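Q: Can I see a sequence and its folded structure?
A: Here is a first one.
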Amino acid sequence: MTNNLQDLFPTVLSQAREAVRPGLNTCQLLVEEIAVTAPGQLRPRLEHIMGRKGKRVRATMMLLIADTGIQTETPESLERKARVAAGLEMLHLASLVHDDVIDESELRRGIFTANAEWGNKMAVLVGDYILSKSMELVVSEPDRRIPAILSQASSRLVAGEVLEMDLAGKLDASYEEYQAVIEGKTASLFEASGRCGAILAGHDAPLVDACGELGRHFGITFQIVDDLLDFGVGAGDLGKATFSDLANGVITLPLVLFFADCSTADRVKMTELLQSAGREEPGAAESAKNFLDQHGVFDRVLESAMGHMKAAMGILDRLPTGVARNILAEVCNAMVHRSH
């Protein structure tokens, strides 16, 4: 992947955010209101956590899909879309707070994590508060499918995280197990974004389902690219330590594909390298990466990502033509080449 391609995704995503700026701005105001109205010492803690400006990929996708409808924008419809976007972003944020506790992370995007600042117990409680507020944002949504979708996404997200922990360090994890993990921990929120956006656009039930599939394929691709970035493939300024998943024994697609058809000798060698990487022995993680590269694993992983993205692009063709659909296509095309 060339540097030009790696630079493409943040540029395209920035343009996508500008296209839905009114919705994102209202979404941000809703999130900030949650922080400033929180009781006691929750307020400064939430302000600290929400000071990390994320990419807002899920909210942006949801708002773009919502804009493929034909409704006239009103203050009421903008508020409605923004509340759903904020619910999705808060749900994602809660998962990150809990992830940092599980992974014992100290930094996220250059800012101390909640667990590093206040300890695990307080971080879990703060994450729980954010999770409850994400649901509160959509509890009055007139289309009752939307709160149900967010609730189900939350359950699937946690189930995916649990399965990932159960599979940690399991070298013979199957592709099906890997797929179940990422469909829960990553794709579930993107699928929810697609479904909610289609509902807000006024699309019929088959197209709502199709947009859910669009989000699912996008989310799977997003996670596969993350797996590559953990090995430093296409990596730029990642905001997380390269090889962190490798050191923590987290199941990733490069290792799943390698162990699925490697020789006994290669299995022994890679197992030894992973054990050394887990002990953070100098050079072990880099040696594991080089060994995978020699076996062409990273090309196969990128091919898998491209397959899911092509499936997403096929679904995009079913949406009404217009600016929003064109921007979604650009985001999809650029996403497989992102560098962070």
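Q: Show me another, different protein.
A: A second, unrelated one:
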Amino acid sequence: MIILGIESSCDDTSAAVLEDGRILSVVTHTQNEHVEFGGIIPEIASRAHLKYISEIIKKALKDSNKTLQDIDAVGVTHGPGLVGPLLVGVNTAKGISYSLGVPIIPVNHIEAHILANYIEHDNELKTPFVVLVVSGGHTELIYVKEIGHYELIGKTRDDAAGECIDKVSKMMGLGFPGGRIIDELAAKGDNDFHRFPRAMSDTLDFSFSGLKTSVKVFLEKHDQEFLKKNINNIAASFLDAVTDSLSKKLLKAAKVYKCDTILLAGGVSANTMLRKKLDRAVKPKKMKLFYPSPKYCTDNAAMVAITAYKKTQMSSINSLNVMDMEAVPFLRLSE
């Protein structure tokens, strides 16, 4: 089976081609139109998706040595996400599905992040497991009994971890998006330079707004010369607080749910410090830790294609009428 995957839930326009569970190509365009605003502007994102999506699909097909006529099904992210960008992807997928007479497979964006781990670890991954989905818009702990059966066991009460990182990067004058910038600076800094707070240590829920405020107060207390001199140390200390919270709660969830397998998913799962902490933590516990390659951590259509493929293995995909497909901005994982 050959599946065309399409992703457009935020600011990444992406298409991928999968054949029998193997990714043949993935092409992703990340919009830079939002950098000057320090955040994603939905209207600008929608227009950019419209501009790029056709060429991205053509490139993915060319790279895979396939044509539209080879496609057996189209998988597309239909939520959660920004409604405008989602509509671009959904309507493009509907047009392709209708014109070719092939099934359309709706994909949940969060489920796709989770199943991105199967792109490279399909033969190793066994359920049940606990997964930490962590990105600019989501910070969630999910117990996966089996593919398709998900239980939300922890979530952020305020900011997502990636959102907090982006906002702190902006406070420090480092630019947007802040994930890679903070990660690179932290690698050259001292984690013990300053101890920023870790919130809600006794639950599986997260909170990052207090940490964000603490960094703001710290920055306001010191002059520019001090901040410039210690920028790497500040980044390291801040990221240490973020990754402490994420890693400790993931390990706690695994203990509570008696799972010896844990996963990372989402854009922030590419963070170097987070991966190193968990790599060190699981060794003496004889646990298994999986995370995707960085290119599959951020929003991409390969994760959409593999999720669509898994859905075809579990049930029939021919029952959905193309015209019934909708974009659902606040789609829940269980829906």
